[in-house]
Specification:
Layout: E1 2-7, H1 10-25, E2 33-38, E3 48-49, H2 57-66, E4 71-74, H3 77-81, H4 84-90, E5 95-96, H5 100-107, H6 109-119, E6 126-129, H7 132-140, E7 146-150, E8 159-162, H8 165-176, E9 188-192, E10 197-206, E11 209-212, E12 217-218, E13 221-223, E14 227-230, E15 235-238, H9 245-265, E16 272-281, E17 284-291, H10 298-305, H11 310-318, E18 333-340, E19 353-354, E20 366-370, E21 373-375, E22 382-384, E23 388-396, H12 399-411
Helix pairs in contact: 1-10, 6-9, 7-8
Bound molecules: adenosine-5'-diphosphate (ADP) and magnesium ion.
Magnesium ion (MG) is lined by residues 277, 289.
């Protein structure tokens, strides 16, 4: 079977790796012809990388038709928000991911806040503005912290937690007047600041039902102890120790059941992975946001624990029968630590030589995934090529064992400016 995975991060590396290993370990083993667009040097171990950007929908469509791709899997949010799934479906190509309408759950925070409110999902108090003067007047009456969000996609940089109303006004000015995120900040959502602990809940979703994956905690700040600037995520682990069975059942009933019912009523059925970013406040989940695809770096941990064949799940979701699939996760612990480049997240340096990541150095329960890497010109040498360079993923029968494996493996990897958090999975 010919499969195309769209994207170039460690998330896509994890997806491709899981598909390849599942095929190899199947009884009987079956062959997959894997392609990735654009992929990365780590993905090359399993798939043919095709030099087409994830947002170049026209060329992706042409490639899929010419190569007779039988299943496409979309990793990142940008092409989903652009309607890549609708375009593939129009051409009768099988594709895993939500349609453009359903992708609005991630692509518009204002739309989603209103939909979630209609659905009765516990949420922070919020107001939506399209007028700078009105938004300014509103924040002037508020005490900090004040959460100001650009409505549209902003590559994880569109949210500010302002400590004072003056700071909030500056953020509003940047978003709505200077257009720092182009049109994404023309509409803003101003929210109540919630105090609690964040957790990521991902589910495989179709119109027959949904399957929740194990809950995962991400570590967003750059430095240990949750210090420093926010990032795209510095590390993840599962299982999380701070969500009770009762709270988990509320995540199902109050968040997933409600949003999916509301989507059906609104005529926007969802197929793909739905990711809820939640703030647990006194054992109750409050909605921070939805993403309409696999999280990064959550996926790295979720797929390490997933025992069921991933292709079986993708095909079931496309055919609207996920409710019939027995999806199993290992009871083990898994951990993912992100290695970042000098200067991340502000202005990551590229071109630093990387050593120690050869797949031969990996073991069954600890391995590296590539994100921002590339091959140096005219050589096979690996160099840094983005802010989040590599991930190390490990597993064990306890978090302590997984941690030990990951941090030992990290010591074998070198590049100038290498940075990572030493405290992933240690917050009790
Ligand atoms: N209402 C809120 N209260 C407290 N913290 C919030 C709130 N909304 C967002 N945050 C924090 O800001 C981060 C980014 O916000 P989010 O809505 O997830 O946007 P994005 O991931 O698109 O940048 C969250 O992970 C959370 O840490
Ligand atoms: Mg988020």
């Amino acid at each position: 079977m010919k499969i195309l995975v769209i994207g170039s991060g460690a998330r896509e590396h994890a997806i491709v790796r899981k598909l390849a290993l599942d095929a190899k370990n199947a009884q009987p083993a079956h062959a997959l012809e894997l392609y990735a667009a654009p992929g990365n040097p780590g993905i090359e171990q399993y798939a043919t990388c095709v030099n087409i950007e994830a947002t170049d929908i026209v060329r992706l469509l042409d490639f899929a038709e010419e190569e007779q791709i039988e299943l496409a899997v979309v990793g990142p949010e940008a092409p989903l928000a652009e309607g890549i799934v609708d375009r593939f479906l129009e051409r009768n190509l099988r594709v895993f991911g939500p349609t453009r309408n359903a992708a609005k759950l991630e692509a518009s925070k204002a739309f989603t806040r209103e939909l979630a409110q209609q659905a009765g999902i516990p949420s922070p108090y919020f107001e939506i503005f399209t007028d700078l003067t009105l938004a300014r007047d509103y924040v002037r009456g508020l005490a900090g912290p004040i959460v100001v969000k650009a409505d549209g996609l902003a590559a994880g940089k569109g949210v500010a937690i302002a400590q004072t109303s003056e700071e909030a006004e500056q953020v509003l000015h940047a978003l709505m007047e200077e257009h720092t995120f182009a049109g994404a900040g023309d509409t803003v959502v101003i929210e109540q600041f919630l105090v609690g602990r964040e957790v990521s809940a991902m589910a495989f979703v179709d119109e027959s039902g949904y399957v929740l994956m194990p809950l995962i905690e991400d570590h967003k700040q750059l430095y240990a102890g949750d210090q420093g600037p926010n990032t795209g995520g510095m590390g993840t682990y599962s299982p999380v120790p701070f969500v009770s069975e009762e709270a988990l059942s509320r995540i199902r009933t109050d968040v997933f059941d409600r949003i999916l019912t509301q989507c059906r009523h609104a005529g926007i059925p969802f197929r793909g992975v739905l990711f809820a970013g939640l703030m647990m406040v006194d054992e109750r989940p409050y909605l921070i946001e939805f993403n309409v695809r696999f999280g990064d770096p959550e996926t790295q941990v979720a797929l390490e624990l997933l025992e069921t064949d991933l292709l079986t799940i993708f095909e079931a979701v496309i055919d609207n029968r996920i409710a019939e699939v027995d999806v199993r996760f290992a009871k083990d612990a898994a951990l993912c630590v992100v290695l970042t480049a000098e200067g991340y997240p502000e202005s990551p340096r590229k071109g630093d030589l990387i050593t120690g990541v050869a797949p031969t150095k990996d073991q069954e329960f600890v391995y590296t995934l590539h994100a921002g890497t590339s091959r140096a010109n005219d050589s096979t040498a690996l160099v840094t090529h983005g802010g989040r360079v590599l991930n190390v993923v490990g597993r064990g029968d306890s978090l302590a064992v997984a941690r030990q494996r990951v941090y030992e493996r990290i010591q074998q990897i070198s590049f100038a400016g290498k940075h990572y958090r030493e405290d992933i999975g240690t917050r009790a």
